[in-house]
Amino acid sequence: MTQRLPLSVFIIAKNEADRIPSAIKSVIDWVDEVIVIDSGSTDETVAVSETLGAKVIHNDWPGYGPQKRCGEDQCRNDWLLNLDADEEITPELAEEIKAKFADNSYQSADAWRIMIRDVFAHETSPAPWAYGYHQIRLYDRRKGRFSASTVHDTVRPADGARLSNLNGVMAHRSDRSLEFQVGKYNRYSDMQVADMRARGRKLSRLRLLTEFPVSFFKGYFARRYWKYGWWGVILAINYAHGRFLRIAKAYEAELLDTRAKH
What we know:
This protein is 40% helix and 24% strand. The protein has 262 residues and is α/β, with parallel strands linked by helices. The strands form 2 sheets. Strands 3-2-1-4-7-6-10-5 form an 8-stranded mixed sheet, with helices on both faces. The longest helix has 31 residues, at 230-260. The radius of gyration is 20 Å and the shape is globular. The relative contact order is 0.11.
């Protein structure tokens, strides 16, 4: 029997019955507990999660950061591993984490960054060139917590916390389909504009002209979407459109404000 690590995994979810099984299965056999924070699923997310061995707790949606802080509070261990419902720990990363707990080298840092790489619906694992980014996902909650931002869900390490990187990769199945991707960009741009307005941030109107081409260039070349062939062209266009939507909606909000004043 595999020895379970003194590690709590928490996952926030809503209507993720098709994706959360991979997330739970990637950790359930070797961690102390898996907690799912559900914000009102109407599909089989709760039943599927419980069947796979996770503990499910309901919490109405307060925003990304607060929901993850809720997850932190539900865990019985101080060392936490955070997964999103559309992510999974690869076998190589799992072995790396187990090894660090076996020899206590995980304690050489207070928070560990993990490379999170995109996996598309037609792929079984991340391509070597897949776009990715480092985020703190394995950490001691006494030395850092998720931010309280409703839009940004990032662990904020305490002053003096020691940070390091793991070598393994987390697979990120962020898009079920192109239809889903477009809808996500639409929803995220709404939240981003609301966040910017709440902070009093205004964007230059010149970005209405520059945002799309600059973002296409960033996606196609900097994110290496060109390596996907024609699929990469689609990805770069959708990425650029998603970035443009933020600017367009921010400008629309300014126009509506002006009308309301007259």
